[in-house]
Amino acid sequence: MARRENAEINAGSMADIAFLLLIFFLVTTTMDVDSGISRKLSEKPPENYDPPIIKMRNIFEVNINRKDKLLVEDEKMEIKDLKQAAIDFLDNGGRIGKAIDDKPGAPCDYCNGAKSNKSSDHPNKAIISVQSDRGTSYGMYITVQNELLSAYKELRNTYAKTQIKGRYAGMTYDQLLLLDSKNNNELKAVVKEVKEAYPQIISDAEPTK
Amino acid sequence: MSKFAKKKKGLPAVNTAALPDIVFMLLFFFMVTTTMRETDLKISPPKLPNASEVKKLEHKSLVSTIYVGKAKPGDQDKFGSGDKIQLNDKIATLKDIASFIYSEQEKHNPEEVPYMTTSIKSDIKSNVGTIHDIRTELRDVNALKINYSTRKGSLAENTK
After folding, report:
1. Do the interacting molecules here have an ipTM over 0.90?
2. Cα–Cα distance measured from residue B67 to residue B70, given in angstroms and rounded to the nearest whole number
3. Contact B159 A140 (CB under 8 A)
4. A10 → chain B, closest CA residue
5. What are the chain A neighbours of B63 within 8 Å (beta carbons)?
6. What is the tens place of the pLDDT at every residue in A55-108?
């Protein structure tokens, strides 16, 4: 009887096969992480809906024309000044705020603004309205949105740093968001408090033609 | 002839037995960290705007993407030179957005639907009018969460 030893399987081409698979995956997949400016649209208003009347001093009007030039509260402005103007408007705290869950409106005791009569009453009443032209470039529109968001972020950071007491005292809002809030009700409550101190109210008006 | 004649010895072959293991490791790394490319762009690749206040989009499977930009230079005779909207694999019109969103919602459980996000990947040269029309369509079908896709970088690039 011929005795044959088990011949070893030649695995030399295994590497080639694996390389082939590797290259296939490199080509067909992407690695980029999607990120961007998130926004929640308002719901479709019912028919015969009467929009609530809002006082002019509580609206911060930003107009962008078709040449990508800015008009803020009826004055020309450069994009670099927009953030400060928005902060001044939001943080003004001239009068009392909106009543929330039966609690009567209170004056804004954390605002650092000028408390002027002509600007917003309270951060929770302040509305930023962006009106662009149909011909405005998308790049400019995003730049404006970005500046407004960074104004909110700065106010929220200051609020978190100065007003929050307890375990999370002295942290900015950005730092709070980086923490893991799963199963951490204290952190969730803190984040909610900061959000409610400066709620983001940015509305997009119908663009002009 | 001496008994101790030198045997001819070439360089010993490098042992490549571990090579497949290394390549497989790389392969698994890429399989885990990347996602499949889903659509071919029919419009010319949009140059996304830059922004700094960005949020990461989580749960990629819950994201439906709308591309906005100009048609490819070769296709402009066919599609015209205005802003074009791409849904899935073809250039579409505003009216198709509603059915696109419904078909995306169909793929998920009803309880996941409120978390679905529409990501708008638009070229910086597009008109806000087009974006607004898309927004109105989305609002009509109650797909309220949207995300303007951006990159990180300098804002000055946006208006060039």
Report:
1. no
2. 10
3. yes
4. B17
5. 34
6. 888 888 899 888 888 888 888 888 888 889 888 888 887 777 777 766 777 777
